[in-house]
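Most newcomers find our protein records easier to grasp once they have seen one. Read left to right, the backbone structure tokens trace the chain's path through space. Nothing more is needed to start thinking about how sequence determines fold. An example says more than a description, so a record of this kind follows:
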Amino acid sequence: MTDQKSNGNRNGDPISAPDERTFRILVNSVRDYGIFMLDPGGRVVSWNAGAEAIKGYKPEEIIGSHFSRFYPPEALARGLPEHELVTAAQVGRFEDEGWRLKKDGSRFWANVIITALRDEQGKLIGYSKVTRDLSERRRHEQALKESEERFRALIEGVGDYAIFMLDPDGFVSSWNVGAQKINGYEAHEIIGTHFSRFYEAEAVKSGYPAKELRAATLDGRWEDEGWRLRKDGSRLWANVVITAMRDSNGRLIGFSKITRDLTERRRHEDELRKEEERFRLLVDGVTEYAIMMLDKDGFVTSWNAGAQRIKGFTAAEILGKHVSHFYTSEDVASNKPWRDLALARDTGRVMDEGWRLRKDGALFWASTVITALKDAEGKLYGFAKVTQDLTDRRNAESLAETTQRLHEFIAMLAHELRNPLAPIRNAVALMGRKGLADPALESMRRTIDRQSLHLTRLLDELLDVNRVARGHFSIERVSVDLQDVLSRAIETSRPLLDAHAHRFQAAIPDGPIPVSGDAVRLTQAIVNILNNAAKYTPQGGNIRLGVFVRDAEVEIRTVDDGMGIDKSQLEKVFDLFVQVSPETANTLGGLGVGLALVRRIAELHGGSVQARSAGLGRGSEFIVRLPLAMQGVRVVESASPEAIAETPRMRILVVDDNHDAADSMQLLLESMNQDVVTVYDGPAALSAVRTFDPDVVLLDIGMPAMSGYEVARQIAPDGRAITRPILVAITGWGQEGDRQRARECGFRYHFVKPMSESALRSMLIAISQAPAKRP
């Protein structure tokens, strides 16, 4: 923190720099020490909370009084107060312990340190006085001397004090548990040796141990604090009391020596003495926060390294300038800097986040705290201001919000695009069943069929990548036969393989290949690999699929002789939005997420996927590895085209506010020999349920006025999937949360638009094989 000097405040006090005022507030909060100031004549000019707690006086009762009122009569008679001031003025410091008086007249044993304070010219301007109540320690020491027998019984079990006896020459004659704990010696190691071995070499050389014994011999007692040595050579800060022991005739018979390890207290006292300097160094060295002091009018009086880093100004450039330099022009025009200072003055503290200015005019998002600084009388003398640059956090929050909105937009977009796709797919399927005599029309129908199917796949990829990005892409584990998964995947990819005139070969072992996983997702993974091979292999190429069971896993290898992959791209092809060669003219396009989904699906199944290629133009190989399951399998069923003839006639209610989707679905169902009624809103659906008595209700969810969920709740008020009519959701909303909500509202099935003819047929077959019972 930059030091600020001052020649005095309005009251003429010589100590008035903002840092020293802050330190005074710190001192005033200390309760374990009485810390106060005296003027040169010894009158009290300041009083902290510790002084009040120890001596009992409130500031208004003692400030202005002479400090001699704390001394008992015998100390006054000796002139001790005057002696202490004179000594402190001469040598800079006076320390003493003795009896002092509290406000109620009771005595306490005090440790007192008086330090002379001088200005820059060396003129004495007063004294600091630090008092600590050591009455408890004093009483303990007195109690120890009351009875030698009681003392001896006590010391044997004392662990916090080293208590031992010395003979008149200083040789150890007894040793307690505390001495062993503190000094490290066993009794047999130390008894009979001279106590000077506890002292550092310099102290021994100077004769300090002998000096202590002489002082104790003459005065009866010697107390000291200083460094001592343990057995292992380490140092401890010890409080030592040596007491001369005499018999009834006054003959010296030895000494008692009590040692206490005060190393930790010494450390704390050193920390306390160094605290102000450390605080200054700390603040000045902080770079993550701009920490500055302001005077009471808001002008900068100190400036740390963090302030320079965040705001760009050096201390020389900003000291003496108003805090409003950091606010935007709009904030200055609205008087915000002055309002913030006024609020901090009135409430003590104000926190804010907003845009602030750097030296170069750039904006950054700042978190600021302005704290009012007041003296003991509550008079404002300045402010502390701490600023943190949160621009990165704000940008991250903004990005997260944008990402969330993007996810919501993608879900809404998919829903809106599925609605028009549903009638298109229904119409194409119906035209295919009716047949078109004109070859040109049939060709156009097939074009519409292919392109609408491609658009459907793009929508599925869009939603899948949205799930992956949000961490919602998951699988449902059941035991399935990989043979059935592969057959279904080959059947799905066959039109694309045939369209490119590829020669396709599959080598799949006989017998079940059990894996634990999601049949739909596994099929999707194999389809993506086969479609990828078809797209990136020139017309009339070769594609081979082989399955190899190895110990506890199965490998699915797909090899083509297509354009290949550069070795630097072998890992990148599994990243989202990466295409092997998006500029190649013979690709069918896509979002570049197919292989990313393959890797995600493989990993969710506890497997992996690997790409291999000898280089561009030399073909590719994709290897999917999956762990085998040991339990039975569930076959992935696919309805045959002939199954339509086996579907019994049912009453089906179609409900969709999109007339094209509803009407085309009705025509498709009627072509499948079903009895169909179509309505376009929720109330009409409820009415038709009562009059038409349908077996199945194909119900859209996102209808205005009355949603499909509300219709379902009225048909199935207890929220269960009822036995009749069977509720089937056909909707553009396909997230897992949408499926869960549909189940809770009583839907038996949930399909995402557009629903294919095969899926519709399979569902009707499943319903017919488990006929509903009337309630």
About this structure: The chain is about 40% helix and 25% strand.
